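Quick one: structure tokens for this chain, please?
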Amino acid sequence: MFFGGYFLAFLSIWQWYRGVWPLPLLVATAFLALHIEGTVIHDACHKAAHPVPWINQAMGHGSAILLGFSFPVFTRVHLQHHIHVNHPKNDPDHIVSTFGPIWLIAPRFFYHEVFFFQRKLWRRYELLQWGIERSIFITIILAGLKFDFMNLIYNLWFGPALMVGVTLGIFFDYLPHRPFRSRNKWINSRVYPSKFMNLLIMGQNYHLIHHLWPSIPWFEYKVAYEKTKPLLDKKGSPQRVGIFESKEDIYNFIYDLLIGVRSHSKKRGKIRKIINLYPGYKIKKFLLKIVNKTFIGSN
């Protein structure tokens, strides 16, 4: 997969300069390359991309460079997500999922870098690794400006990366963890079984399996789910996509599409304080009703 992603990336660049392929096909090829590397970096951060440690690390750093990420940032922040699933302050992916509309989920991944430095999550040589990977990123941009290939960067890197960011945000963060309330390990994520989705999003429809046993590589999630399904049934683990099961689910999904900012308090909170500043009583009442209906914290 690692080499396949790089092959597709170089293929899209080669075809860009040949001028034969139409732009949609070039963008689709670049998107697929980054989408594949997204799974590689995810497995690598859990030491599941390759059994040999240094090869696993190389795959993690290599996929990060192609994605425009930093492997130490991705690893440390993602592991914090696993430790603090659905915690409003300590789960960095909770902010990604609940601090704005779904269609703007990709830019919120920049918060991971802020979280990494706020919490001082680095270990040993990881700050140096971060500096090298960020230097590579900046060097590519400066080279694009100097040698006039920014159009390639915009179309075959930034654009597909934005699309991958939306894909990752929806299928890695938003769908698996909604309604974002439980911290119980058996119900803080969900499964929505599907052979098609298993290939399309590389196993993330079995996200709960990943959280329960994070060292399992993505292509074994489905098998693990089938073997542990009786246990998941007993524990009451969510095993549907959870969008259209009730009126509340539908309402919350539409709200997340359009607005998506969630309150963690039904009676107090920053959102309520801001709304209370509004002079119009009817509009204020309407907005407070929305906040009360979509809150995801405790009473």
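The longest helix spans residues 150-177.
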